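Would you mind writing out a protein's amino acid sequence and the numbers that encode its backbone to help me picture the idea?
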Amino acid sequence: MGPAPVSAASALPPEEPTPARRPGVGTVIRHLLGVGLMIAGLWATIELFLHRSAGQQIDETALAEVSNRLQRYTAQSSSLLNALPAISAGLAVAGILIVLFRRHRFAPALVGVLVAVGANGSAQLLKSTLVKPNLGIQDAVLNSLPSGHTTFAMAAGSALFLAAPRRWRPGLAILMCAFAVVTGVATVINGWHRPADVVAAIFLVSAWTILGMLVLRFLPAENRDESGTRFTGLLVIPLFTIFGLFLGFTALVTYLVSTYQHYPGAALLGSLCLIGAVGMLCTALIVCFLRGGLRAPVERAYTKVWTY
């Protein structure tokens, strides 16, 4: 008998996996501009509230108003503040483990962990290197900017945000914002940090998060993620932008009232509004960078571990 006929399909060479597509120059530039915008916000916070007498006065007035008006909430805020780092870290670790074992997103999880480590490390570096000038306004002359508690809580949310599939990220961005704002407000009410410390921490972690999102765009696992964020993103971005701008306007007005009219409670209200405004606007910007994701061919049933 002669050799069995060879089918046309079997005669073809094995199909090579399609290489992952890389983001364009415009995408990279947009992410870098986003990082630069967050760094500019951090620099403006340092310049206005650390080096200027008007900013130091607003921060000191807000802290004094906490003691006068919110002293009865200190015990509750202290308990919440002590629990928040453990809660945020526990949720982040549990979420990352779920992503690892169910979605096999090893590289995105690693990027998320590295971003969290970088954010916390840079916060401690800034806290130890920044020098607060003694302008005769604040009793404490040592720098406390940025807030370590706020950085840790928001960085934990950022790690989970980066490790998760694209479809989950708008919801996790809201969780990350909630971690930051609630922890920041608790530190202010408890008298551990001034409002500017919290604002600086939000800008710092947001910069690291956008940088992590840029790194993710070069990973094959991110290219294979075909889930979309169109509807959830369209909901989060306008709502957070509108409420963030409203809170920012409220903060500006109350700061002016506190400066020129010395109305009791205005500085504290403006500071809390500023924390909420920065948290919401940074979250809206982060969710904006989820748009325009790459679409790759459908993932095969079996994929090499090192391609994740």
Residues 8-18, 293-308 have pLDDT under 50 and may be disordered. Residues 24-227 form one domain. Residues 178 and 279 are 8 Å apart (CA to CA). Residues 230-260 form the longest helix (31 residues).
